[in-house]
Amino acid sequence: MQKGKFITVDGVEGAGKSTQINFICQHLKGKGINVILTREPGGTEISEKIRELLLSTDSKMHSDTELLLMFAARNEHIYSKILPTLETGDWVLSDRFTDASYAYQGGGRGLDINRIAQLEKWVVQGFTPDMTLLLDVPVDIGMQRVESRGAKDRIEQENLDFFNRVREAYIARSEQYPQRIKLINASESVDNTSNQIQAILNTL
Ligand code: Z5A
Fold first, then answer.
1. pLDDT beneath 70: ranges in the chain
2. Which of 67, 134, 146, 171 is most buried when burial is the number of CB atoms within 10 A of its CB?
């Protein structure tokens, strides 16, 4: 039985997830909430190994393999980390979750949404975040922010069209699930984004 709350943060590259996740963590801790920080793909020993495979530039990967590996990592993450933590009453804050598969593999790669939904039904089994903060930024702005970071991983090497499709898919999901997915304008300053997030978190 889930007791803690499950919050996810998602968005295109350079939207500021990592930056804002630290802010959210501090904000929740300040309210006396025990929260653990995790990420996808990753979060457990096995899922982090799958992440390495997924992001490595060493070899090409079939899009279906990519989707299946995302869900394999997610399966491990949910059942060995997220659910056991929520059962203790602690909260879980995850940098990305299933929405990313719809956005990147569905929108970006153009995979059939029904197949993603089938995997979601199998692996995630109706378990959804209590709240998803979707940081939205135009792709060119996001890319400029991460430009100085150096070597790109396998997915980061995709082109502008790919990331524009990813962004559109995220926005479409926020329109489909407006109660859960809170669309946040992340194109302004870090403080501006944090203020929007704080106002939303206070409604929880
Ligand atoms: N992926 C997938 O395809 N399918 C799935 O199901 C899942 C994931 C779960 C790894 O994710 C990849 O996996 C990702 C999607 C795919 N591929 N891509 N691309 P990740 O989350 O680990 O990697 P990421 O998307 O590359 O995250 P990121 O680039 O680190 O983005 P971010 O966390 O949103 O950005 P940040 O580090 O907070 O900020 C970037 C820079 O911008 C940094 O210098 C900040 O100081 C700066 N920044 C942040 N906010 C601002 C504002 N407001 N103004 C100016 N500058 C700012």
1. 1
2. 134
Whether pTM exceeds 0.85: yes
**CA angle, 138 as apex, 136 and 139 as ends, to 5°?**
110
Q: Which residue has the tokens 């926020």?
A: 174
Ramachandran bin of 159, using left for φ above 0, alpha for ψ from -120 to 50, beta for the remaining angles = beta
Q: How far is residue 97's CA from residue 77's CA, in Å, rounded to a whole number?
A: 10
- Asked, for residue 94, whether it belongs to a domain, the answer is yes
- Pair 164, 108: CB distance under 8 Å: no
pLDDT digits (tens, 9 = 90+) for 135-167: 999 999 999 998 888 889 999 999 999 999 999
Beta strands in 142-198 (DSSP E): 181-185
Contact 100, 90 (CB under 8 A): no
Q: 23 CB less than 6 Å from ligand 1?
A: no
Ligand 1 centroid to Cα of residue 59, in Å, is 22
Q: How many CA atoms lie within 13 A of 182 on its CB side?
A: 20
- As a whole number of angstroms, the longest Cα–Cα distance in the chain is 45
- Ligand 1 pocket member 101 (CB < 6 A): yes
Task: Give the domain CATH number at 117.
Answer: 3.40.50.300
Q: How many domains does the chain have?
A: 1
